[in-house]
Design goal:
This protein is of the alpha/beta class. Helices cover 36% and strands 17% of the residues. It is built from ten helices and nine strands. The protein has a nine-stranded mixed sheet, with helices on both faces. Helix 2 packs across helix 10 (288-306), helix 3 (83-103) runs parallel beside helix 4 (119-129) and helix 8 (212-221) crosses helix 9.
Amino acid sequence: MSRGVFDRAIFETTCTRNDASIVVIPVCYDGTASYRKGTRLGPAAIMQAYEQLDYEDPRFPDTTDAFGVFVDQEIPFNPAAEMNSIGAEIRANTNSRVAELLQRSQIPAILGGEHSVSQGAIEACAAHAGNIGVLQFDAHMDLRLAYEGYTYSHASVMRNIVDTCPQVTRLVQVGVRDYCTEERDIAQNSGGRIHVLCDDELFARTDAGESIRSIWEETVARLPDDIYITFDIDGLDPSLCPSTGTPVPGGLSFNQAALLLQVVAESGKRVVGFDLVEVSPSPDGNDWDANIGARVLYKLCRCAFAAN
């Protein structure tokens, strides 16, 4: 699939894989999706949709011509293997590819695919940068243990990070509105390592008159100096991503999410890597999900570049 779909500079930037400031790594996998599949098609759909974007962005004004985004070849794996073996292979291959980019001082960006594909990238960024924080946009906590028997499940990715990656010293989750007792207890008993800003709390605070900017500034202040951003598209209101695998009512507006990225860029903290996952094209061919995914990817790239 790579040739002609990926392997190119995007967002009207002129760069190669070796000199791009940001390298996007597609991971076309949705094997553990527990409600409906389709996110394996997300990266290619975004590559079809991004060309309709315009690139002036007042949240991230362009002050240099060094900004360059290149889409790499996709991460390989054996689709005929057992599911946990596939997860382990994707983790290892992603970790290796991300580590290579970090050694060249490039910013790695994973483009999924389901959320399980983030693990190898987060681990590589933590190994390279030392202690980092993870800022997670998501409707779900993803703190279940080996969900449905899959160690590398989309519902277990943050549990895996918390359990196996001590360099992630703080996990901050925003937009959460769907979780089980096991996940709530993991967060509450984390000794402050996991901070969850649930959707209902965000609504209550803004309804009581707090500005969303002040809440986001407080949220970002909880993170250490080096940050990895993991953006599950279902953290947004499902009207923006109706075809995603596990949509949940509520969620962030597009402007709320964009403002949080702007606050990150203004904070003085460094974005060491990021991902966008769970974008799924509509089965009827409508390109709305891919359109939103392309716009979120652009803002993530702008945020990460500005924060570096």
